[in-house]
Sequence to fold (444 residues):
Amino acid sequence: MSAAADHPRPPETDVTDLPFFTVDPPESTDLDQAMHLARHDSGYRVHYAIADIAAFVTPGGAVDTEAHRRVQTLYFPDTTVPLHPPVLSENAASLLPGRTVPALLWRIDLDAEGRTVAADVRRALVRSRARLDYETAQGLIDTSTAEKPLALLRTVGLLRQALERERGGISLQVPEQEIVEEDGGYRPAYRALRPVDGWNAQISLLTGMTAAEIMTATGTGILRTLPLAPDGAVTRLRHAAKALRINWPHHVAYADVVRSLNPRDPRHAAFLQECTGLLRGAGYTVFTGGRIPTPSVHAAVAAEYTHCTAPLRRLVDRYASELCVVACAGAGIPEWVLAALDDLPEEMAGGARRANAVERACVDLVETAVLQDRVGELFDACVIDVHERDPAAGTVHLEDPAVVGAVESDRPLPLGERVRVRLTRAGPVEPADPQQAKVLFTTV
Fold:
């Protein structure tokens, strides 16, 4: 493994003169993406470097075989189970600052409104100059002390968000529950999303949409797809909006309503939680021979889209990226890519189920540990979900501690309203009885 880390396949192009930067959580070492933004003609040029894990991994070799077994990196509060060996994912292939590494270099030119006018991807040597976390990046932009490439992240991000609104796409700003280390232990917390989170995500979305365009143009690829929500689901969501006293005129699109909401408002947070139901059913769709699948669009993106910007952490990205590289080079598709395509959707689905189960189990464990000595205490909470078949049961969101738990009542729960609840159970995690892994509240 150390030999592969020390001797990757060298690309012919060298762009180490471009001062790339990364924006990631402060503790991250598996850095998949680095960017450089500049004004170009009357618009903008986005250089987006993606870690080239394929330069290190031999198709069919031990690392490749194990990656197909793992599918994606698993994150625990105190450790990770990486998709690739750390000597690669957190060292040789990671876009850490001050190091020259092989990457897949996307060059995407945008017009003054942020629309794509030209794009390509090729292998290149890159060198990141700055490693930023979200808080630092936001502070530099807000105080107008950011260097031009970072300052343009706001400009380009806002333009791309405007285009997302225009095409009917949506990015749900649902507060994320996470586990943080504190005083030698762990506690649940809600991660507040900053504007820079959204701007940074737009660069990744732009690249994923561009990659999908390249693959559909050449007739072979793998898309991330999400079907449109059925009418019944939208109808239920309209009922939820009415119950939460959220104004939703019939002529206004769902995406426009969501953008008008403030996730800090309890009623709005509850509605956003209900909206996640429209995003279920995402998967991967392979196509060959020019037979573009139907539907081919990701409903939340409102465009054709693929995953290609996190190859250190997600298996499918390596294959989507390789298809784009050879398409732009006018080369043939490698046999190792074609041989793996048909199995990728099922592999990725299994990996996602495993990752979701790990995340939920970790949160359950920390929640029960934090609350196990507080059974019988009262808490202020907000009702964020009510069961359709049993309106006296649902889910509540506590501000402090940052817990999301089941709730039962002797009367219908008021969706989106604040309630007083008593903790009635905070049992240990029992695999034989998944319900024991969750805290339970009752209204008072």
